[in-house]
Backbone:
């Protein structure tokens, strides 16, 4: 019998991948990729060797997908940053499942540094970034490495589309 946590995690990664491919217009009406060779397709990463490269690749992001009850966002963000580096991507983010909610309502967390780098790449002000993509900040103590910004997966998909249009 398969490990239930692994089965649940794989299903969550697949749901995130499928939602982003659809939201970014990368699939046809039957749900199949329009161009299976496109580097812009969102894919579940195959693990190779000792260095983890994240769960889902959504260029230019590596997504660390979490389907757990108790969040540990700062720890997950450190993990996502390391895995993005291993994969050769500039940005690592976390996608945390919201219980009994549609995948598009999943919480997407970006560390302050990643959020700032994405904002600069988009060429928008802090206020515009926060309002356009509905980011909400979380500040935990004086240690800014534990601070992060959160939006939902639907708005994150729009951010990805806007960033890809700029690059």
Residues:
């Amino acid at each position: 019998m398969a490990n239930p946590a692994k089965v649940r995690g794989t299903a969550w990664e697949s749901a995130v991948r499928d939602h982003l491919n659809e939201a970014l217009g990368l699939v046809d009406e039957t749900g199949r990729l329009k161009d299976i060779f496109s580097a812009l397709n969102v894919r579940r990463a195959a693990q190779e060797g000792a260095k983890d490269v994240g769960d889902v690749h959504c260029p230019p992001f590596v997504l660390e997908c979490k389907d757990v009850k108790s969040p540990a966002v700062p720890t997950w963000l450190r993990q996502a940053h390391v895995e993005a580096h291993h994969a050769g991507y500039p940005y690592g983010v976390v996608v945390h499942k919201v219980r009994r909610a549609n995948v598009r309502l999943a919480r997407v967390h970006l560390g302050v540094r990643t959020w700032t780098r994405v904002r600069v790449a988009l060429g928008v002000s802090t206020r515009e970034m926060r309002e356009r993509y509905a980011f909400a900040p979380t500040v935990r103590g004086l240690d800014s490495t534990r601070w992060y910004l959160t939006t939902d997966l639907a708005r994150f998909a729009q951010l990805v589309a806007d960033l890809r249009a700029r690059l």
